[in-house]
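Two proteins, back to back. First:
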Amino acid sequence: MTKTKTYDKKIIFPLGPHPLPPHPCGIHLTATDQNTAHNVPHRVLQDEHLQPVGFTTTMAQWIVNHHVSPEAIERDRIRYEALTRQGLVDPVQRFPINSNTQKGNWAEVLLAEYVSASCTVKVPVYRLRYNPNVDQSMKGDDVLAFDLDSNPVRVLVGEAKFRSTPSKAVVEELIDALVRSHSGNIPASLQFVADRLFESGNEELGAKVMSCNVLFAQGRLQLDYVGLLVSTRNVHRHIERNAKLNIHRLAVISLGLSDPEGIVAASYIRAGEYI
């Protein structure tokens, strides 16, 4: 259950409640909603109930889903069996080996799954499936989620970062990335999402995503911004001191882990066992 501190009524928290069990985030993480010293809505996630094996198993499943489609997994299986029979090594790499890319992707995947569970939004395209170089970070919005049935239509723009050691600089970097997205008006990755939907034959959903351009021009599109910073257990203190409110409808989430690098490494090891 989310613990809540008193809010300034002028501040809008663009997140729904913390997910309840049986959702993995409800099982493994606790949440407290508060405002930073500069009045930014801040959800503090902590790992006091985290069960490492269960949590990394869930993260591994999410990592696989975000990086590889079921169809690609089946093609990989057929290719791997054929190469193995010939005594050859499969050269295909589905997950990043670079540790920094692993950490960034891990945070991105968690943010996408978290907002999907917390809000009435859906992530229609897993963008990491389309990364031409898995060891490099992708450009564009980390998370783009939609509630296309709400009035007004709602688009949630997410930015996720992982740091082994939290700092003022990374908090400012997180907020600045969301401010730049806000300054660009329509989300930079909206066309990317629409194109992938059209390519997959999902014409109706692609058209709805494309219509967000018109809704924005008409002033009928609600844009929300959420940033996630994953680090050690004291990460929330850095956000509390340094996150400043620059745009409307912005919130930040901190996730403090006792062993953040170990959790990420274990998640990818387990993900590799699934494909």
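And the second protein:
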Amino acid sequence: MSPVLQRTPGGAILLDGLRLRDESLANIKATIANAGGPKICLTTVLIGDDPPSHVYVNSKHKKAQEVGMVSRGINLPATATQAQVEDVVAELVADDSVHGILVQLPLPKHIDTEAILRLLPAEKDVDGLTEKSMGRLVRGIKGHVPCTPLGVFRLLQRYEIGTKGKRVVVIGRSTLVGLPQMLLLVRRGVDATVTVAHSSTHDILEVCRESDIIIAAAGSARMVTAAHVKPGATVIDVGVTRINGKTVGDVDFDAVQAIAGAITPMPGGTGPMTIACLLENTLEAARMLNAI
């Protein structure tokens, strides 16, 4: 069933991540209940006292509990050593009652992040951040896709925004968003023609204006203006910047919504879908580990 469409004052379809998140969580909750309520466990590892990280982790636990999952949080002090963190993660990997492991990033500077992530088996890497998970995405093997790119993809699917043969520009080439986003969109069955733009792209204005879908994930406040958008294009905002206590995206929403055919709000667009897809991955992890 097609979603109820809301429109911006300029007439663009509002890609409502909050609405879709709630739909997704309801489906996950029903799936767990229909399976007899298996104890599907998501465990987070948080190191240090970074306030935003604590907020993000708490929201993940809250939503996990709402859908009927078991959520565990392991908090370590900022002074934790590499060996201590590795021991904690290794214990979770060996624990059959834990299905999904999320190591909250960024880690303190003295911790080797890649060494920690390498400990995670692909089945339990519900954030989709390891080289194993990325390799599976490249090869088209079943695994977990990073949550934010997957959330963007779910928005495109739910709002029936076609990708086959469409020109897409992804602004930003991070391994967290930009690169996996590109891989998702060029897969067989999705069939978009994708350009990845970045700080060295000289003709970015022209690249954007030729695109049917713009996915802005550079972390540069309001960099996508009305001049970047061709009439009717879909514009998805992933970047987040805090300015004077206000959350600002990579897209100048007020100007762009008058030109775009569809647009995500900020906040309320891709952010809620990141958590929904984390729990989607955790449910899939339980299936991969034969727990459901």
